[in-house]
Amino acid sequence: MKVNASYKKHILNFKFRAGTSRGVLEQKETWYLILSDTENTVLTGVGEAGPLKGLSPDDVPAFENKLKEVCSFINERKVIEPEILLAEVDLTEFPSVVFALETAWFDLKNKGRRILFENPFSSGKDGIKINGLVWMGEADFMRQQMEEKIREGYECIKLKIGALDFDQECSLLYELRKKFDAQTIMLRVDANGAFAPGEAIYKLKELSRFKIHSIEQPIKAGQWDKMAELSENPPVAIALDEELIGVTGTERKVELLNRIKPQYIILKPTLLGGFKATDEWISLAGRNHIGWWITSALESNIGLNAIAQYTAHLPIDTYQGLGTGKLYFNNISSPLVIEKGTLLYDTSMSWDSIDNLKTGEKMI
């Protein structure tokens, strides 16, 4: 198949001020990589490249130029097999572009139906259990979110912590745990590296009172020895997240896992370099008896759909982090729906075209 490539930038507008330990998000830039069959231009595959500000390796001024380089390579050669392109265009520092490339290619090969993997999820026969995410904010806002997630039927709640006073955050966890025991509601927390190394063990011990399943990235990435200390018989299981970002090459990945020995790793294909790179992390985790789950990274429904279909073909055995589709006023309309804490692909619904994307509303 001979193909042409182009891309389209889109600004996603949040429905609320999404708080993290790295600041508050109101908008997110994303780019759609579009591959079309030269003999049938109606047939297109779409992938999403959406680096996260301040976190992704490819959050750099040269990002759009790299997209142009990829499109130029494809348009000159009329080929798009990712292995050929990656051998000649260095995308090591552009993991979200690799993810977009893989996604668009899978989509195009499957007739541009936004079906990348044929499985019970993409055929609408089965769903993926996901955690309900509680964003940082004032205590009342976080409490409101927790109550909403419980009413909506989530069995796993994940709280982003590290912005409020720690005692306030513990109070919120206490309130939830007082109503629902660990057999009824699984609790996860994500510190995004907010704890100082010297205080982390104390805070982990405090959090353990609430029967927490795991904590993501308690201290900032790059402190392997300190993270290894925390991971050795921790009061709360440690899950590495930001720690994996920017770690490329099999030897370096093996070194990280052997040094830290975490209980879990969190896998974000957009930030790790696509499906093939994620597959390698899963393989290495299995060799080291390390658990894992897949998480989206604020993608629009294009990226979320790709990650969900990829996740559904894996041997998953816990709640995944795939619930970002409802964050934006101006997301692309899709068959993705969430019911009772389960992400579903409703085959009675259709995809909107990326040509119809609108600026959308903005927060007041």
How do the strands and helices of this protein lay out in sequence?
Blueprint lengths: L2 E18 L2 E15 L2 E10 L13 H15 L4 H7 L6 H15 L18 E2 L2 E3 L4 H13 L4 E5 L5 H14 L6 E5 L6 H12 L3 E5 L7 H8 L6 E3 L9 H11 L3 E4 L1 H4 L1 H14 L3 E4 L6 H12 L23 E4 L2 E4 L19
Parallel strand pairs: 5-6, 6-7, 7-8, 8-9, 9-10, 10-11
Antiparallel strand pairs: 1-2, 2-3, 4-13, 12-13
Helix pairs in contact: 4-5, 8-10
Characterize the structure shown.
This protein starts with a strand and ends in a 19-residue tail after the last strand. Helix content is 34%, strand content 23%. The model has no long low-confidence stretch (mean pLDDT 93). Strand 1 (3-20) and strand 2 form a beta hairpin. It is α/β, with parallel strands linked by helices. The strands form 3 sheets. A 7-stranded parallel β-sheet has the order 5-6-7-8-9-10-11. Strands 1-2-3 form a 3-stranded antiparallel β-sheet. Helix 4 (139-151) runs parallel beside helix 5 (166-179).
- End-to-end Cα distance: 47 Å
What is the total tally of β strands?
Answer: 13
Element order, helices and strands?
A: EEEHHHEEHEHEHEHEHEHHEHEE
Sheet with most strands: strand arrangement: 5-6-7-8-9-10-11
- What's the mean pLDDT score? 93
Strand content: 15-25%
Output the structural class.
Answer: alpha/beta
Helix content: 25-40%
Q: Give the biggest sheet.
A: 7 strands, parallel
Count of runs of 4 or more consecutive helical residues: 11
3D shape = globular
Low-confidence stretches: none
- Using only CA atoms, what is the Rg? 20 Å
